[in-house]
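Sequence only, no structure available. Ideas?
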Amino acid sequence: MTAPSKKGAPCPICQKPMATAFRPFCSKLCASRDLIRWIDGGYRIPTEECPDGVAATEEGMDEDDRDG
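Reply:
I predicted one. Tokens follow.
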């Protein structure tokens, strides 16, 4: 295993000292855990947007179609 670095911020996952080889993480395990969070959408910012289908349908309509 790689020796922990004495400088810098701790591992963002487990708060142990960072290892230079896995920067900014302390180990391959913490790097993998972070990747899984990205893939699962754990870092997404929640929004109040309409579903894609609704917005696309309204954009494709002519003004005559909207009036009824």
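The CA atoms of residues 13 and 33 lie 8 Å apart.
Hope that gets you unstuck.
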